[in-house]
Structures are given as structure tokens and as C-alpha cells.
């Protein structure tokens, strides 16, 4: 797929009309054809060109301080992030039993009656709750999926996820809250490790990026992509870059994650012991454009439903995003300063996330700032 073809991707803002097409599986499965609002333009439905087969990055030696292992990990990360912004890690410290417990607990939520799921539906502009194909925001090119999202304030809270589950879903889901509290805590620990690795790979002080995320936050999202009888016309998630800093992904054995590398879509084979790391727009700005925000998508399956566990990592919302002086390339800055809260507002409330988030964000930022009374 050529880079010019990416310009054809739909860039739609929020819906104007208050018409919501709900992703009710019981109704959808009785229909002979996929509703048009879930169908994507034909030019977007480009098949993949092979399998992503770059080396896995073993974190064990890096975590233990082994110099040879660290040098190898740093080189692999640098190569991956300058080319396409995606790498995979093993020996990451997240127990396999915890990952499987997370899948079991979330299955019970997606199996709830649709009306029950709507009782904790995500509010417009919010970051937590159930979403059926993001149909509250858009009316065309809808993703074939259901999601539940919740926030974690990182090292600043020891019960926020548990509190969300018990308040939004009830005490029957207290165990799910405990499992996801632990899962999010492990994601925070891994985030700080990844930030040290990214700093070393960019040639800056090891702790430089870590300090921005020690008091940061994350949004955890559990995705369910139901079986689709015509997967050639829709996406589980269409091509896009994540606006946050990094994204940590675990996909189940069905697979479906694909990334764009060297203008080709490559399928990422699932492995139970592997976590995938996407560079997002905010970290691309933190690196002064040296590292690429990963363009990726999620495919649906004709025979099986698919699930994934996704952690979107961000700094504090009022954090000013700018690269260290060592990466400013003399006097050349690729991106102006901005706060994470402003980019979050833009991609949540003003424009659909796509492959050109920052390109479209900065003109909007200038325009919105000019309207603020002085």
C-alpha cells in the first residue's frame, strides 16, 4: 500500500445528528447483510502483504542490567521505532496467569445482555465505559467491535480500577475489578521500563522520559471483535495512529493486528508470551519526530470472535509535550509545544483518530487558542 493511498482514509468528525446505530449482536446476526454504516470504502480494504517477523526484544537482561542484553535491546528498539514505530517484548514481567484471568473476566462483561452493557455506556467525551462500535460519535465507517474502557492513575492510586468496576457494574464484578487493578499496575511497571529503554535508544539520559510517566495515567481498553460473516468490507479498527504516548497490546490467539511497515500491511502473529508496543503521536513529538507513530489496524474474523487487551499510556494531562534539548536538532523543532490534554480533547471531541492526527491537530490548536479571550 503506497503512502499516497493513506490520504484516501476517511477523516470524519463527530456526528451532527443524534442518531445512534447500536452494535447489538442479537439484531446484527439476524440480518442477511452487514449494515452500510459498518462498511468501509473499497480503497481502504487493502489486503496484507505478509507477516511481521522482526526479532522479539527480550527484556530480562535489560531489567537485570546486563550490558550486552541492553545494547541489543537498544539497537532493536531504535531500528523499529525509526522505521515504523512498533516492537514486541518478551520476559516483560506480566504473568501469563494474570493475562488469562483478564480475558476470563472481560468475557463475562461482553456476554452481558445488551441493555445491561448500555447501563454503563461511555459518555460523550468521556474515557470510561462501554461502547458499541463508537456509534455514539460516528455514523459511517463504524468499527465491528464492542469495547469497555477504564482509567488508571498509575502510581497515584491503589484502587481506582476496582472502584470503577464496583460502582459502574456492581459488586458482582468486584473480582474483575481486582484482576484489572493488578493488570493495570503491571502495565504501569512495564511502562517505566519501556520509557528507560526508549530514552537509551534515543541517546538521552535513561531517566528522562520515565519521570514524565511516574505520575501519568493510562486508559485500559478491552476489545471484543465478534465473528463477521463478511470480513472483506469492514474493520475491527480502521487504519490509524494512537494519539497517546505508547500503547501496550496483548492479542488473543485469533490474531488480527496488522501494522504498516515500508508501505506494506503486515500481519502480527499472536503469541501468548508477547506484548506489542506501539509508539503513539505524543511520544513521536517527545522524540522530535525521530520515532514514528505506528500506523495499525485490526481485522475481523469470519469464523471466530477476537479479543485484545490494550493499555493507552499518557503523561499527566497538563504536561507540556516537547523533546529534550539533545533531540532538538540544533534550532529545528518538528512540532511546537502542546499539552497532552489539548491533543486528547482534539481526538476525543473534534476529529476522528486517523493516520494524520498531529498534522490536523496543530492548525486546530492555533485556531482554538486564537478564540480564547485575553
UniProtKB/TrEMBL annotation:
Keyword annotations of the record: Iron, Metal-binding, Oxidoreductase
Origin species: Hibiscus sabdariffa
InterPro entries associated with the record: DIOX_N, IPNS-like_FE2OG_OXY, IPNS-like_sf, Iron_ascorbate_oxido_reductase, Oxoglu/Fe-dep_dioxygenase_dom
Entry keyword annotation includes Metal-binding: yes
UniProt family annotation: Belongs to the iron/ascorbate-dependent oxidoreductase family.
SUPFAM superfamilies hit by this protein: Clavaminate synthase-like
Residue ranges constituting the Fe2OG dioxygenase domain according to the UniProt record: 216-315
Protein name: Fe2OG dioxygenase domain-containing protein
Oxidoreductase among keywords: yes
Record-linked Pfam families: 2OG-FeII_Oxy, DIOX_N
Amino acid at each position: 500500500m503506497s503512502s499516497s493511498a493513506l490520504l484516501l482514509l476517511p477523516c470524519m468528525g463527530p456526528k451532527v445528528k443524534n442518531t445512534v446505530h447500536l452494535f447489538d449482536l442479537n439484531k446484527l446476526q439476524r440480518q442477511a447483510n452487514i449494515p452500510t454504516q459498518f462498511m468501509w470504502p473499497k480503497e481502504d480494504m487493502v489486503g496484507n502483504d505478509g507477516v511481521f517477523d522482526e526479532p522479539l526484544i527480550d527484556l530480562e537482561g535489560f531489567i537485570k542490567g546486563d550490558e550486552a542484553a541492553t545494547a541489543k535491546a537498544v539497537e532493536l528498539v531504535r531500528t523499529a521505532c525509526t522505521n515504523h514505530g512498533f516492537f514486541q517484548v518478551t520476559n516483560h514481567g506480566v504473568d501469563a496467569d494474570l493475562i488469562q484471568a483478564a480475558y476470563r473476566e472481560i468475557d463475562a462483561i461482553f456476554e452481558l445482555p445488551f441493555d445491561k452493557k448500555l447501563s454503563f455506556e461511555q459518555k460523550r467525551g468521556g474515557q470510561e465505559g462501554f461502547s458499541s462500535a463508537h456509534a455514539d460519535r460516528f455514523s459511517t465507517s463504524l468499527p465491528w467491535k464492542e469495547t469497555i474502557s477504564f482509567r488508571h492513575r498509575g502510581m497515584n492510586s491503589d484502587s481506582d480500577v476496582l472502584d470503577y468496576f464496583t460502582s459502574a457494574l456492581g459488586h458482582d464484578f468486584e473480582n474483575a475489578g481486582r484482576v484489572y487493578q493488578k493488570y493495570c499496575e503491571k502495565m504501569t511497571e512495564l511502562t517505566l521500563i519501556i520509557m528507560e529503554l526508549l530514552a537509551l535508544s534515543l541517546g538521552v539520559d535513561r531517566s528522562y522520559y520515565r519521570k514524565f510517566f511516574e505520575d501519568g495515567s493510562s486508559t485500559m481498553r478491552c476489545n471484543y471483535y465478534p465473528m463477521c460473516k463478511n470480513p472483506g468490507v469492514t474493520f475491527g479498527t480502521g487504519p490509524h495512529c494512537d494519539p497517546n504516548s505508547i500503547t501496550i497490546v496483548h492479542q488473543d490467539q485469533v490474531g488480527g493486528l496488522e501494522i504498516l511497515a515500508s508501505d506494506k500491511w503486515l500481519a502480527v502473529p499472536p503469541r501468548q508470551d508477547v506484548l506489542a508496543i506501539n509508539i503513539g503521536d505524543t511520544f513521536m513529538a517527545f522524540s522530535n519526530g525521530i520515532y514514528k507513530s505506528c500506523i495499525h489496524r485490526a481485522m475481523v474474523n469470519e469464523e471466530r470472535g477476537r479479543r485484545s487487551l490494550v493499555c493507552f499510556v499518557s503523561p499527566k494531562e497538563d504536561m507540556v509535550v516537547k523533546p529534550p534539548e539533545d533531540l532538538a536538532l540544533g534550532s529545528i523543532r518538528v512540532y511546537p509545544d502542546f499539552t497532552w490534554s489539548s491533543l486528547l480533547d482534539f481526538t476525543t471531541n473534534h476529529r476522528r483518530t486517523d493516520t494524520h492526527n498531529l498534522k490536523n491537530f496543530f492548525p486546530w490548536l492555533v485556531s482554538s487558542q486564537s478564540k480564547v479571550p485575553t
